[in-house]
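Re: the pair you flagged

First of the two:
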Amino acid sequence: MPTYYLVIAILALIIFFISLIKTDVALIILILAMLFSPEFRAGDIPGRAVVLRIDDVFLLVIFIGWLARMAINKEFGLLRATPLNLPILTYTSICIVATLMGALRGQIRMTQGIFYLLKYLEYFFLFFMVVNNIQSKKQAKLFVYCLFTTCFLVCLYAWIAKGSIEGRVTAPFEGKEGGEPNTFAGYLILMMALMISFIIHTQSQKQRILFLALLGFAFVPFILTLSRSGWLSFFPMYVTFLVIPHRYRLLMFAGLLMLIALMPVVAPERVRLRVMETFAPEKTYKVLGKDLNIAESAAARIDSWQIGFQRWAQRPILGFGIPVGTVIDNQYTRVLAETGIIGILAFFWIIKALFASARRLCVVMKHDTLSQALGIGFIAGLVGLLVLSSSAAVFILIRIMEPFWFLAAIITVLPEIAQEADNAHTYG
């Protein structure tokens, strides 16, 4: 057995006992591990290696420890009611049924299906665990600032690394194949949306300056990911703040115009080359009767849609099960191919419930600046990730989905906490 297996096992045991005694501390450790977890090879399934990250292990161990703690405290099986429970459980059931059907048809190996199902569903475990663990606004605020601290540290790593690499900036411990800069770009879109929202809503001038500095500190690594889909997704995220009423809309619109004007002048050479590469004559498509030349990597994203629709057309109702067995680099046709039209409808039900939960937070706690910043920032970040999902399977990427579902749990539970506090005050 490799030595690092033993190290991981010892760490997992320590984390388990921490989660059993104090789940808050275990969740803070998980937040820090989200972007700083090395990956390791856990075995093989036919056709590919099984690669896990340490935070995959930590998340599962913390979840088990949390369940054990609930059982000891005679609270086992009690889940806080949220608008997301039914959509999540529906989508989960569809994923399981589709995968079992695919295994029975012989199109999916059961061991492979179980492994991928756990990867898909672990984020929902995180959501339910955080929802049931948060009992106060102070607790939620601590978790949010831990998320910002982790973002600062990972951006600091990117700033240090950017001078020593010629290629694209990625998060730490991204393996030996050059990492996943698109994943890092997606993570930064979510976090920058929160930063912008905190800049808008905070009442403290010192905090506004702090978040402005953090936004600028994160924006440079974001640009140096050289993720064209990430760059494209930034604009709908930003435009969301121009649509939602607030007193800084005119200033933000001016900032957007300034950014568009200055970027061609101040952008590093590798950024300009990356933009020009998009239209390299490597593959040609007919658009409105005219030839459009684009790079091979961009063409692969377009072909991915075609592959996904072709696979879905073969089994349109319930799909092939998870995993679909074909590389599909976008979220939407991947869900269609894996779980069919039933699965995609359940997936969009979850998205609708996420938007509704963020809006509810803003309505219920309209006088609370933290809640307003979280609600609006989450909406903008979700818009950006939905656009990014057209060229990446965003909702199964651990480095984006762990902070995303952590935040989703916070924005969902804060109105419940406020109402419970009001009820306690009323009847107390």
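Second of the two:
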Amino acid sequence: MSFKVEVLEEKKNELINRAELQFRIDHFGKGTPNRLEVKKKIAAMKNANEKLTIIRKMRTHYGSAYTTGKVNIYEDSKDLHLYEPFHIQVRNLDAEKRKEIYRLKKRKEPFKHLFELE
């Protein structure tokens, strides 16, 4: 799916050591883009590491042809683990890894190696 990402606002949060962006995607006549596709596109636009780019929120209003959202781009994986909730980190992975993480977590087995942030 081809779509254009427009950055509405960008600020650098020095305290947390991350860049915070607000974006808008116009997708007239098409469905809402996949979270992972948006993540790849924004990481490529900002020359950032895709694994340290977290889509925090995506929202499409009913009946509209655009999506707005927030992205956090971290410089360090330790900061990402510290400030992003577990469910947001998992939501930014592909479907297979999400299933595996939730399966291992349910069994109370180690799963942190599946995040592959280092």
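Strands lie at 4-13, 18-26, 53-60, 66-74.

-B.
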